[in-house]
Amino acid sequence: IMMCSVFAGTRLAPKEKLDIPVLFMPDTMKIYEAVVVIHVMRENGENWPYEDSAALNKDLKSSVTVGENGGIHGIVWIYPVHGTPEAPQQKLVPAVIRCQARQRVERRLEVLLTGANAMPAARNTATVNTDKPANNQEELQVTDGFSTMVEFLYELQYQSNEIKSQLGALVGIHLIQRERDIESGNITLIFSVVFAPNKPIRNEATLVVECTTGGVWKFPMLFIATKPEVDDVINIEAVGLNKESIVGFKLTSQTR
User: Fold this and answer.
1) Per the structure, how many domains does the chain have?
2) Rounded distance, CA 51 to CA 121, Å?
3) Ranges for the CFAP47-like immunoglobulin-like domain (predicted)?
4) Which of 17, 79, 99, 103 can pair with 36 through a Cys bridge, CB separation 3.0 to 4.6 Å?
C-alpha cells in the first residue's frame, strides 16, 4: 500500500542529493502511516571521530550507532510519512445556490462519500446509562455499523483569497445529518447551506470533506446572486421649459 525504494550500498559524494520515491496505493479510505529510514556509514568502514562517545546526549543516541572502538559508526534519519487517500476527481455537476441580492436563502445539500463503504466500521453497539431515566434520548446511544466516534471535518475552499474575502462572509454551511446505508455501506452527509449576498456575484467554491479516520472528498459548488429589487422610483415633474426641477431623497449606508 505504501512502498519505498531500497538504496542498499548507494554511494553519495559530498553534498550530493538523493531522491527517495515513495509510492502510495491505498485500497481503503483510511489514514496510513509509515516511516522512511536512512542509515549512512562511511564508505571505508571507519568511524567518525567523536571525543566522548559514551557521553552522547539522549537525542543524539537515538540517531547514531556507536562503534566498538568509540566514534560514530552510522547516522540514522527517520522521516514519518502519513498517507491520506482522496476520492477520485469526478466530473460532478456543481451544486448551484442561487439567491437575489439582499435576500437570504437556505438550501439542503446532500453529498455521497464515494468509497466510504470501505472505511473501518465499528461493531454494532447498544449502551444505556442506567443511572438516569432511559427515556432521555441523550442517554441512549445505538449504532448499526457506523460508530458515532467517526467524525467529519468540512470547509469551503475558494480559488483565491479575493474570492474568499468576497464570498466567505456571505455563506454559512453546517452539517445537520449523516446517514449510512446498511446494505451498501455508502455514507451520505446532509448539509444546511445559507447564502445571503449583498450584491450580484457569481463565484465558485469547493466543499472539502475529510474523515478523521482517513479519506478526503471534494464537491464543486456555484454561488449566484442576481440583481436586487429596485428600492424605489423617483418621479421628477417639470415646472416649465428650461427650468430646473429638484427632488431630494436620503441614502443610508448599511456599513461604516
Assistant:
1) 2
2) 55
3) 86-226
4) 79
E runs forming strands in the chain: 2-4, 22-24, 32-41, 64-66, 72-83, 95-100, 105-113, 125-128, 140-143, 152-158, 171-180, 187-195, 201-211, 216-226
| Residue 239 CB neighbour total at 10 angstroms | 9
- Domain that includes residue 73, residue range: 2-83
Whether 208 has a pLDDT exceeding 90, the answer reads: yes
Residue type, 187: I
Dig out the grid coordinates for 221 from the structure.
459548488
Do 66 and 102 have their domain in common? no
Domain-ending residue, one of 83, 100, 128: 83
Residues 94 and 192 in one domain: yes
Please name which of 34, 23, 33, 31 lies closest in space to residue 85, comparing C-alpha atoms.
31
Rounded distance between C-alpha atoms, residue 199 and residue 205, angstroms: 17
| 9 Rama class: left (phi>0) / alpha (psi -120 to 50) / beta | left
Contact at 8 Å (CB) between 107 and 97? yes
Q: How crowded is the C-beta side of 110, counted as CA atoms within 13 Å?
A: 7
Q: CA–CA separation, 180 vs 186, rounded Å?
A: 6
* Under 8 Å between Cβ of 26 and 33: no
Render pLDDT for 69-91 as a digit per residue (tens, 0 to 9): 777 888 888 889 989 898 877 77
Cell of 125: 453497539
The pTM assigned to this predicted structure is: 0.66
Compute the CA torsion angle 209, 29, 119, 180 (nearest 10 deg): 40
Report in angstroms the alpha-carbon separations of 74 from 19, 45, 65, 205, 232: 20, 9, 5, 50, 82
- For residue 79, the Cα-to-chain-centroid distance in whole angstroms is 23
- What letter would DSSP give residue 116? G
